[in-house]
Amino acid sequence: MKHVIRPGSADISDNADVVVPWWSFTKTLIAATALTMVRDGQLALDDALPGESFTLRQLLQHRAGLADYGSVTAYHAAVAAGEDAWPVDRLLQSVAALHAGIEPGSFAYSNVGYLLVRQHLEQMSGLTLDVVMRRRLFEPLGVVGPCIAGQRSDLADVRMGDVQSYDPRWVYHGLAVGTLRDAAMLLHRLMTTDLLPVGLRDEMCHGIAVGDPGTGRPWQHAAYGLGVMAGTTASNLSVVGHTGGGPGSGIAVYHCPEHAQATVAVFATGGTAGNIEADAFKLGL
């Protein structure tokens, strides 16, 4: 499944209007929503969050010294068993002892960090993530189909691969769902319109090297900005966007700023992150 936007040419689509989980591409949307609040003077990137030692920038860059619940065995066992998501307090307790092993300022991918960003956005706006994202991101960019799934029934018409029953609240920072067409259009318009001032968008896309992205990942130089993976692919293509995966499926949504401003969204059931990225990067050439 894919959707490719290439200005000056017809879009390329294959099952692009099927609703799918966007997994960690949601992080890009959370970051973009936060940056609209920075734009409006409601948030500051480099001020410590209330009661915390880390900043919004550090959270968005995965450099706040926080662990990830992806390493918690009981979490994966509960998801595999089809259980309801744990209360947030229990989730945070499950990773509390792991934070000490992470040096603040170093890169450590953390879904917990994005949960804290979500909570901060909701507290500052007085709105749910779904509503604040819709008002600040989806509607201004003219893409109104996506939503944040909040319960199992929200996934009834979502292609989830071989997963029979999944509680979307297991994605604690929020799980956006929508079509590949909408995913590609959101990223394309985020990167090519004036929703964010140029300087702020440049900060979003400026990645700090993260080292080895992992076996089988098609990156020559991997970096992470503010809610986006950025860098150079093995085929020497500059890209910015995000890869995501969960039980049964994965997604890659990337913009190619130096190659005809193309934007690509690819979704697959099964497969690896590296394979899905490779498919996306080939389409971006």
UniProtKB/TrEMBL annotation:
PANTHER family noted in UniProt: D-ALANYL-D-ALANINE CARBOXYPEPTIDASE (PTHR46825:SF7), D-ALANYL-D-ALANINE-CARBOXYPEPTIDASE/ENDOPEPTIDASE AMPH (PTHR46825)
Return the protein name. Answer: Beta-lactamase-related domain-containing protein
Q: Which residues form the Beta-lactamase-related domain?
A: 15-272
Organism this protein belongs to? Tardiphaga robiniae
**Organism ancestry:** Bacteria, Pseudomonadati, Pseudomonadota, Alphaproteobacteria, Hyphomicrobiales
